[in-house]
Design a protein that fits this description.
The chain is α+β, with helices and mostly antiparallel strands. It is about 45% helix and about 15% strand. It has 18 helices and twelve strands. A hairpin with a 5-residue loop joins β1 and β2. The longest helix is centred in the middle third of the chain and has 19 residues. The N terminus is likely disordered. This is Metalloenzyme, LuxS/M16 peptidase-like protein.
């Protein structure tokens, strides 16, 4: 629709300039248009802070943000929830700006300021017009280095986070995946939730918040990423001006040491039966690939082969994968979603199943795991090519806009130390063959331990040993 509208506008413009006369039908020779190559530039400051940018000279806006190698995984059991709590306090005032001044400053420039916390990263970012980028960087460094962490703000946000926790507990998918991490990495930092247990939220003190900043917000664990109309050297100069006083290295605390230790994946299950929930909600996973694992993209292709399914969609009978065809034909599920979640040194590769056909839960699990077994021995070239095309499209479409590009730069560099360009990613995916997928499945899926998380009307889910036995099915 947009292209038709553009063509119409162009045609109207040409008619206007031609004074109503018909345009000549002869075409001129086309001339090639060369644009500067878009690349990611990186610079490391003396204190260890990495500055990374993708400069687009024609962009009118820019996104800048700080990606920190610290999330809930950098906490202890006693301080779990601190990183997320800090995210809430970031915009509540600094030693230079009150909360009102901060909000007014962003509003007056028409900018957007936000933050989020994950298990391994904390991110603060801003989007604004190019001329306002220096002001955005100043605000970012201020909230990172000078947040007041006032007791009154802490108490207000404590109530906000407790309400947020209640809302998350009502979202079954969130609950299932939190329990999946908890059972797969039980007793380890990666198994804890991002929000933390309610008792921690009630008890977190200003001292714990300040210590988290002191121990984790250091230059060697930060990336200042920019995308859009901000030249690399300009952002480097701003970083040198605003972030040069950051401590260069994190203290070697026990929490830091534990966060850098590869967690053990534990084959196990957790089940919360609640017959008031009309569906069975089940996640099953093996240990997957880390961000820097050679199997990372092969895992994504294998995930795309298993595919996704949603009965409510109009194209439900034609969603491409073999498993979706079986599920739809036999009406086994409301939906399913295959996933490949990566962390710095491990990952979870699996499937999330939702069904209200409570008498067919075992059939649904059986066919899902039978599909996993099939990946070890019988994958066609056609389905691999389909999966690769879908994967490349989803990766490239996800890079639409300066915020998405900045996110990609920051995430890749803070997790792997470098950024693969979209072109490099495309070439890697193109080189994956059906043999690579089968080898991956043989090593990572066939007869491997699984973690299971199930919530809802799950009486029909067989015991762990029965489900685990389906991981080595011969056809």
């Amino acid at each position: 629709m947009a292209s038709r509208r553009l063509a119409l506008n162009l045609a109207q413009g040409l008619r206007g300039r031609a004074g109503g006369l018909s345009l000549p039908t002869r075409r001129g020779l086309a001339t090639p248009h060369s644009s500067p190559a878009i690349k990611t530039e990186t610079t490391t400051l003396k204190n260890g802070l990495t500055v990374a940018t993708q400069y687009s000279p024609y962009a009118q806006t820019s996104t800048v943000g700080v990606w920190i190698d610290a999330g809930s995984r950098a906490e202890t059991a006693e301080t779990n929830g601190t990183a997320h709590f800090l995210e809430h306090l970031a915009f509540k005032g600094t030693s230079k700006r009150t909360q009102h001044q901060l909000e007014l400053e962003i509003e007056n420039m028409g900018g957007h300021l936000n933050a989020y916390t994950s298990r391994e990263n904390t991110v603060y970012f801003a989007k604004a017009l190019n001329e306002d980028v220096p002001q955005c960087v100043d605000i970012l460094q201020d909230i990172l280095q000078n947040s007041k962490l006032e007791e009154s703000a802490i108490e207000r946000e404590r109530d906000v986070i407790l309400r947020e926790s209640e809302e998350v507990e009502k979202q079954v998918e969130e609950v299932v995946f939190d329990h999946l991490h908890a059972t797969a990495y039980q007793g380890q930092s990666l198994g804890r939730t991002i929000l933390g247990p309610r008792e921690n939220i009630r008890d977190i003190t200003r001292t714990e918040l300040a210590n988290y900043v002191k121990n984790n917000y250091t230059a060697d664990r930060m990336v200042l990423a920019g995308a859009g109309g901000i030249p690399h050297q300009q952002l480097v100069e701003m970083a040198d001006r605003y972030f040069s006083k950051l401590p260069s290295k994190s203290p070697e605390t026990s929490a830091y040491a534990l966060s850098k230790k590869k967690p053990d994946f534990i084959g196990s299950d957790v089940r919360i039966r609640d017959d008031t929930i009309p569906t069975a909600n089940i996640a099953i996973a093996v240990e997957g690939a880390s961000w820097s694992d050679p199997d990372y993209f092969t895992a994504l292709v294998a995930q795309a082969i298993v595919g996704n399914y949603d009965k409510a969609l109009g194209n439900a009978p034609h969603q491409g994968s073999k498993l979706s065809g079986i599920v739809h034909k036999n009406d086994l599920a409301n939906s399913y979603m295959s996933f490949s979640t990566s962390y710095s040194d491990t990952g979870l590769w699996g499937i999330y199943l939702v069904t209200d056909k409570l008498g067919s839960v075992d059939d649904l699990v059986h066919f899902a795991l039978r599909e996993w077994s099939r990946l070890s021995s019988n994958v066609s070239e056609a389905e691999v090519e389909r999966a690769k095309a879908q994967l490349k499209a989803s990766i490239l479409l996800a890079l639409d806009g300066t915020t998405a590009v900045a996110e990609d730069i920051g995430r890749q560099i803070v997790n792997t130390g470098r950024r693969m360009s979209p072109g490099e990613i495309e070439r890697v995916i193109d080189n994956i063959t059906e043999k690579d997928v089968m080898e991956f499945a043989n090593r990572r899926l066939w007869d491997q331990d699984i973690a299971i998380s199930a919530v809802g009307s799950i009486e029909g889910l067989f015991d762990y040993a029965r489900v685990r036995a389906d991981m080595s099915r011969n056809f």
